[in-house]
Every structure is written in structure tokens, then in C-alpha cells.
Predict the structure of Adenosine 5'-phosphosulfate reductase.
Amino acid sequence: MTLVDIEVGLKQQRGTLDLQDIVESAATFLEGAPAREIIRWAAATFGDRLCLTSSMSDALLIDLVSRVKPGVDVLFIDTGYHFAETIGTRDAVRQVYDVNVIDIKPSRTVEEQDRDLGPRLFGRNPDLCCFLRKVEPLNRALEPYLAWISGIRRDESPSRAGSKVVEWDAKRQMVKVNPIAAWTQEDVDNYIADNGVLINPLHYDNYPSIGCAPCTRQVAEGEDPRSGRWAGLGKVECGIHL
């Protein structure tokens, strides 16, 4: 079976095909392929039922995908706790790239969450805060799609080391595509420099990994790039990729 066979089979049987059937074959065929080829396969296979997510730490994934699939939906989770620089990066992305940025909001505003669950939930129960403000809103937003593209990389953390370029997202019952899973930080830096990719200005102020403002700190030279996320809380993932 070739990738063409997989694509044709999916298009012919989209109403009844178990999407898990294509994941293993695609992951094998596409392992080691250039990121753009992986994205091209995903766009041809899933069409308008494909989206990508972005935290607006940079626009690398947006740049890559928009070159293959102009007008693609980009889901941005507006948690209510973002740095102003992150919101500014989102606004710049809307102006610069041929994409459709969709703001995803939690069911409660920050004020409503403080009223219902008490203030500073992010410090008392960060897992619950991340679930309410990131995971649950994204789960709702992904429902219309068959597949989503993520920018996670294997070298970011031990929890991501086993990521495949195409995976079955069992939690959401859909396909997850990780086109830059095998990239290193050097690959990222080179692509950004070579293509003039927009990046969040916080990167210039020692924030190599950017999340919500209350749970993100600057990172000292030599520290792990993700050590500034949920520092001191014994937490390494928001839950989206678990």
C-alpha cells in the first residue's frame, strides 16, 4: 500500500472508515520525510477537516502549513492569562499570513472562574486551571475536524520523546499530525532565520517557552528551556498533548 492508496481509500470511505486504519501506515511512510511533505499529505487527505493549533510562541508551524494549505484554520486558545506580547503576536499573524485564526475561549471568563472556584486557581490547582482554560476549550474546538497539526518536537521533553509524525489521538478520536516532531532547536532557529518567521518578542527576553503569564518565568542561561513553565509546581505539561 502506498500513501496514494491511503488517501484514495480515505476519500472514498470517509463516512465509515475508521481513521485509525491510516495512522500506522502513514506514520511509517512519512517518518523521516520533510515537514512540508507530511503537511502536504495531511492537507490532501483531510482537506477542510484539517486544522492546526498555535500558542503564538512563534509562527513557524503557521508559516510551514500556510505555504501548503493557504487559508487553513489556526486555533488559538485565548486563556485570558496570556502575555500582551502573545496577543500581539496573534494579531500580527492575522495580518502577515494567509490563515484563518480562530480564537478559542474557555466557558468561564477569568472573573467567573475566580468567583466560582476562588482566585489564583493556577497556583492552587494548576492541572484543573489548565484543563478548564486550555484542554476543554480545545477539545470543543476540535470536534468539527478529522485531524489536527501540532508543533510538538521530540527533543522538547521526555513526555514528547516518543511522538510520531502521524498519531492516533485516542482522547479526541482523531488524527494528530506532528510534522516537526524530529526537528531540533537548531532546525527551528535556522528555519525562522531563513524565512523571516514572526516570533513572540518574549523570546528576546529569556522566555524560550511561553505559556500563560502567571505560570511562565524567565529562564537563566544553561537552564532547560521548559523550566520556566509551572516552575515549582511539579508540572511539565498543560494536558493538551497527554
Observations:
- The domain at 19-203 is CATH 3.40.50.620 (Rossmann fold).
- The CA atoms of residues 51 and 148 lie 5 Å apart.
- The chain is about 40% helix and 10% strand.
- Residues 126-142 form the longest helix (17 residues).
